[in-house]
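Give me the fold.
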Amino acid sequence: MNNNELPRWATAIALPLLNLLSALLVAALVIYLLGESPVESLGILLNAAVLNPEGLGYTLFYASTFIFTGLSVSIAMQAGLFNIGSEGQMYVGGLGLTLVLLALDASLPGWLLIPLAIIGSAVFGATWAYLPGYLQARRGSHIVVTTIMFNFIAASLMNFVIVTYLIPTGQQNPASRVFAEAAWLPKLNAILPVLGETPLNISFVLALVALVIYGIAVWRSAWGYQLRATGLNQHAAHYAGISITKTIVIAMLISGALAGLASVNSLMGSTHYLNLNFPAGAGFIGIAIALMGRQHPLGILLSSILFGALIQGGFDLSLEKPNIPTETFIFIQGLIILFCGAMENLYAPVLARLLKRN
């Protein structure tokens, strides 16, 4: 039994869990070397991020953004594309959302304003992903290179637009004005008061809906079959009558739209204004989520909650344990990417041998 012959449960569940456990063991060793107890630190992290209802609200708030960036990377992976540009696409998506709100939030009711802003974020994110997709499909330009370049272009563009056009007169903070309250997303603590004063909002529900749509579109539709066939073998897909160019461009458009939608949670659900560097690395975390979640809706959901818990629990842990700096959790994220990405098949030969014996 070789790596490719492992049963589905092994590749979808066992390998990701073993890789995650390896990353956490290395992280535990680092925490021990910093002079703290790994077991005690884990207890603090779990309590702050999951067991405490308010902490869970913050965990799910962060997860809402990560679900969209994870889906953004995953849909591109299904077509055999490694979209590194979700960070920039999310950034530009936030600009689209902001332009809609700044233009219309004084004249439209929330029930109309909010959907228009969400559409604006998706359209701008998709537009930013279009050219890398087109260059890959038509000119053979490597998608990794072009999307990385577009991240830098997006950052420079946003800096120029915000500083030059969006800062209100008389203010120095590089941010737009605050959106009208009609554009603020309803918070879920109105339905679940136990969550406390957390920014968790209906974008979490939208993220769950996006997961369901993604699963149906990829595995239960003719288009999803074409998408996966293109990702598995472009030559075979071409001979089967699938337009490789069209599939790649559409996949990147959807990927960019999902990344743009990731901006909705933080901008309309929390800060209520556009500011510099608001993605805060969420696009890159989406890469880890897609790899760890194996591009499966349930895997993406669980991975997003895990990364949300690391961020929320990490804040409290660094406060209670000053020897553990907040940068430690960036290191843990990197470990998860390492084990679930570059070393994802580390345990596959051993697992294959064990299963063969049985």
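Residues 101 and 117 are 6 Å apart (CA to CA).
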